[in-house]
Write a structure and sequence with these properties.
270 residues, Bactericidal permeability-increasing protein, domain 1, 5 helices, 27% helix, Haemolymph_juvenile_hormone-bd, Haemolymph juvenile hormone binding protein
């Protein structure tokens, strides 16, 4: 049933931009390998948010809200690809205890809907390094290949094939610890040190092809059962999925904001 993990995998992923090479930061809080960064402010950045502005959280909320539709096409000049649809090469799932036990992978994941994300809230505390973002995605449609084996609420699930999901009203809360290292050139960027991801949704529809080696009767039974119990199954997988998503999204955030200098969106106060 970890197709549901695919569900949520996309839930937060829209929060960021997918990129490839991460930078290296030394003990002096300096990036030792300089990535290709933006040299001009992105068009979606209407104004920078001042760190000492009492309304900085409101400003950052507007910044993130403006980002999602624009970033659907990516920023090819610095290697940030489009994320509408969002592509993830592989997501591994491993849960070995409880009412839901699953092991396997989702490969070549595509999610449609991230560019329609609404930023509900942003909170930045520069003293503690906390950056929290709450997002709402009305609809997410996903396609992927799956390879799963396990049990969902005592019902066995085994299969390899195509997976499709339809998620509605997905709320994602992302809690981060961040710092602001400098590149060798002196340009400051943002780095995520820690991340935790929580999520919830109003509904989740799932279809897994080729369950039990194509047995249509068993496949129909399992798909029907999964859909009737989707939210309960998601709740069972919540911690496992959240940990997996945090690993993926932390890299995406670092690869992305390691290429967008803070002087364009969160400059230091003079």
């Amino acid at each position: 049933m970890t197709s549901l993990s695919s569900c949520t995998t996309f839930v937060v992923l829209f929060i960021c931009l997918a990129v490839q090479d991460a930078s290296t930061v030394n003990s002096n809080n300096e990036v030792t390998v300089e990535p290709h960064v933006l040299t001009e402010s992105p068009v979606w950045l209407k104004k920078p948010c001042r760190r000492k502005d009492p309304n900085v959280n409101k400003c950052l909320k507007e910044t993130f809200q403006a980002m999602f539709p624009y970033m659907a096409n990516g920023i090819p000049e610095v290697g940030i690809p489009r994320f509408e649809p969002l592509y993830i090469e592989k997501i591994g799932i491993s849960k070995g205890h409880g009412a839901v036990t699953l092991v396997g992978n989702f490969n070549h994941l595509y999610a449609h809907g991230p560019s329609n994300t609404t930023t509900k809230n942003v909170r930045l505390d520069l003293n503690t390094g906390d950056l929290d973002i709450s997002l709402l995605i009305p609809i997410i449609k996903t396609e992927s290949m799956y390879d799963l084996k396990g049990n969902i609420l005592l019902l066995p699930l085994v299969g390899i094939g195509d997976a499709k999901l339809l998620l509605k009203n997905v709320t994602t809360d992302v809690f981060m610890k961040v710092k602001f290292p400098r590149l060798p050139s002196g340009v400051e960027v943002m780095e995520v040190i820690e991340m935790k991801v929580n999520f919830r949704m109003s509904s989740c529809r799932v279809h897994l092809d080729n369950l039990f080696n194509g047995n249509k009767v068993l496949g129909h039974t399992v798909n029907t059962f999964v859909n009737k119990n989707a939210l309960e199954i998601v709740e069972e997988l919540k911690d496992n999925i959240g940990e997996a998503l945090a690993i993926v999204f932390k890299k995406i955030m670092n690869d992305s904001f390691g290429r967008i200098p803070t002087k364009f969106w969160l400059p230091e106060d003079s």
